[in-house]
Amino acid sequence: MRNLVPIGWFGIIDAMTVADALRTTTAPDSTGRSAEQPVVVSGTSPLADGFVSRFFSAQHYQRFHTRAPRYDAENAFFTEDFEELVAAGYLTAPLPAALGGSGLTLPELAAEQRHLAYWAPATALAITMHLYWAGSAADAARRGIADVDWLLGDIAAGQVFAAGHGERGNDVGLDDALVRARRQPDGSYRITGRKVFTSLSPVWDQIGIHARDDSDPANPVIVHTFVRRDDPGVRVEETWNALGVRATASHDTVFDDALAEPHRTVAVHPVGPVYPEYITVLLSWYLPLLSSVYLGIARRALDLAILGAQTRTSLHGDIGRHADKPAVQRQIAQAEIAFEAASALVDAATRQEPGEWPALRALAAKEFATTTARSVVDTAVQVVGAAAVSRSHELERLYRDVRTGSLHPPNSDAVLTAIGAVALGR
């Protein structure tokens, strides 16, 4: 029987049977009879997409993958992974070659992040919080949007940057802040307050934050600036013991009259969703890179389900494998379709274009990617069955890791409100 079979990104071809499309091979089992070997053929899977990292070998990915369960079980920072990321030059990946970087574009870096997350989700998520500073600064400098030469120089010199935007009780994200910034006569700021979920806590050197300046009570502003870890007014409180992505070490950072030097302030804007161009560039890197991490988690979960279904036996009538059951095929098909759609939207968000709606596309991509990722992982658990919730099964960890996606700022409520208001002309 001839069949129309989707192959990767290359469209539909009428070239093979279903068995050929699955690319199954045969090998003798313990009885000497041939048995199909499980395979994944989706063009969005690192097991089949032909992607070649500019930084990591198969051996790198194997080591990252092997360590992930231990980091999770011990609630430990990914120290060994981090050392390998630094040694590979990954922390300067988006910097221009003149600064010792690799000049990766946003689409290229998003692809790297998706593949890293496939093997080591928490490692990929945490390093995102450094990479989006590096990528957006390189982009802003190239466009002449902001004076961030010092930031690029510090990253090129090996400094590690963290993101300090989460605050307990702040449900409007960058539009306002509970942390306070007091402007000094020399143009510096004194920062006081607490930031939560600051990933990379064991290793960061500087943290980018937003804080509220009420020096003119009638016209408060939001200040985007950076604080050095070695400032005496900075301390890290080890509070991180979370459901998932445990290796990120996203502890609290407390500021007590900490200094933000004048040249480290990169943007100031009124309270509310009125962002200067640099912050728009920042978000255009942060949101797709974050989305790519959760797509990597979902793809790994889906592949585990696909491979498991091809080896799991069935006692149902004349069906030999779980993969032969129509219900399983339907679940996998729906998950593949949803994943393809989310991948396409995130890919579109990495291609920056002028205009209001393309700017919102990154928000849409973050919302759709993280919710789709959660749904795909849930489907994978259903396909695998009760074994998936065992602590010894990789899916159990992925099920926990994917839960945090929609909680990253801006959360689902904020994203849907923003997109809905624009779509309705409000």
Write the CATH homologous superfamily of the largest domain: Butyryl-CoA Dehydrogenase, subunit A, domain 3
- Rg, Å, rounded: 23 Å
Largest sheet: 4 strands, mixed
- The general outline is globular
> How many β-strand stretches?
12
Number of helices: 11
Q: In what range is the share of β-strand residues?
A: 15-25%
- Can you list the strand order of the major beta sheet? 5-8-9-12
Number of domains: 4
Helicity level? 40-55%
**Uncertain ranges:** 1-34
Cofactor: FAD
Protein name: Acyl-CoA dehydrogenase
Family: Belongs to the acyl-CoA dehydrogenase family.
Keywords: FAD, Flavoprotein, Oxidoreductase
List the helices and strands and how they pair.
Blueprint: E1 3-6, E2 12-16, H1 18-21, E3 26-28, E4 34-36, H2 58-74, H3 79-87, H4 106-119, H5 121-143, H6 149-156, E5 161-164, E6 180-183, E7 189-198, E8 206-213, E9 221-228, E10 234-237, E11 251-260, E12 267-270, H7 277-311, H8 326-349, H9 356-384, H10 394-401, H11 412-423
Parallel strand pairs: 5-8
Antiparallel strand pairs: 1-2, 3-4, 6-7, 7-11, 8-9, 9-12, 10-11
Helix pairs in contact: 4-5, 4-7, 5-6, 5-7, 7-8, 7-9, 7-10, 8-9, 9-10, 9-11
Which key features would you list for this structure?
4-stranded mixed sheet, Butyryl-Coa Dehydrogenase, subunit A, domain 1, Butyryl-CoA Dehydrogenase, subunit A, domain 2, single chain
Please characterize this protein's 3D structure.
This is Acyl-CoA dehydrogenase. Belongs to the acyl-CoA dehydrogenase family. By secondary structure, the protein is of the alpha+beta class. It folds into 4 domains: 3-28, no CATH class; 58-156, Acyl-CoA dehydrogenase/oxidase, N-terminal domain (Butyryl-Coa Dehydrogenase, subunit A, domain 1, Orthogonal Bundle); 161-270, Butyryl-CoA Dehydrogenase, subunit A, domain 2 (Beta Barrel), CATH 2.40.110; 277-423, Butyryl-CoA Dehydrogenase, subunit A, domain 3. The chain is 43% helix and 16% strand. It contains 11 helices and 12 strands. A 4-stranded mixed sheet has the order 5-8-9-12, with helices on one face. Helix 7 (277-311) runs parallel beside helix 9 (356-384). It is globular and about 80 Å long. Residues 1-34 have low confidence and may be disordered.
